[in-house]
Design goal:
Layout lengths: L5 H8 L5 E8 L5 E5 L5 E3 L2 E3 L6 E2 L12 E7 L7 H5 L7 E8 L6 E15 L2 E8 L35 E5 L2 E3 L3 E4 L14 E4 L8 E10 L2 E6 L12 E5 L6 H6 L16 H4 L16
InterPro entries: Phage_phiJL001_Gp84, Phage_phiJL001_Gp84_C
Pfam families: Phage_BR0599, Phage_phiJL001_Gp84_N
Protein name: DUF2163 domain-containing protein
Length: 295
Amino acid sequence: MAGLDRGFAAHIAQGVTTLCHCWQVTRADGAVFAFTDHDMPLVFNGVTFRADTGLSARALAQASGLAVDNTEALGALSDDAIREDEIEQGRFDGAEVQAWLVNWADPAQRQLQFRGSIGELHRAGASFRAELRGLTEPLNRPLGRVYQKPCSAVLGDSDCRFDLTAPGYAETRVVETVAEAQYFRWTAFPGYEEGWFARGRLDVLEGPAAGLWGMVKRDYPEGGQRVIELWQPIRGAVAAGTRVRLTAGCDKRMETCRLKFNNLLNFRGFPDLPGEDWMMAVPRSDGANGGGSRR
């Protein structure tokens, strides 16, 4: 019973207990969802844990090493709880999860059993299955610099340090025409050269898909219109009249960093690394051996 409140430990030691599980899911946008497998709602920490969601959980496996703590939450989709469209839109991806073992007769007696995040989330008919990952999961990510010719930074991050709010690098517009939530067209788009937003992103600022975004695959003129094509459709309804924000893209080349963004000081690539031809070069008795092709 190490680590348990004395009253809670005494309750468990009785043999006949009034225990249940409670789960709290906090999404990146701040929305909070709370559930319990008890047959009545419970309240603690200022949160009401609902009992009518059909949520349940499998046994929790935890380890002391860096192996991923894992369990699964199983539940039913409900319009006023976890909705199918929000799962499809990825709004629960990476959400924080906390799980308690609670004495439902006295919710002040409880133990936090799990804290982590949602990993893979699958939908099947009117139900869902969510993989839960422990706090050690981020420690399994590889860290360190990658030695490559292109820049390894993400445009606008702490390594790049470029201010994307600078004039000319972000544009907020109202959608004129959209097809399949992937092809956006405007009749007039002055001030930006062709391809300016390629490899950038499109953020939806309002409507049912507010908060969702997509990476720009192509930015090109066609039939007197400016077309912004995304790699994948926005996973939500985007209609004409919706405000979106376009952010300039970067192809990670040193020339682009210098000429388009004037940010060469923070370039994180190694443009002078020798190529594979140079590494495979063999000694020659005549002329210079630079590793290039012979003509």
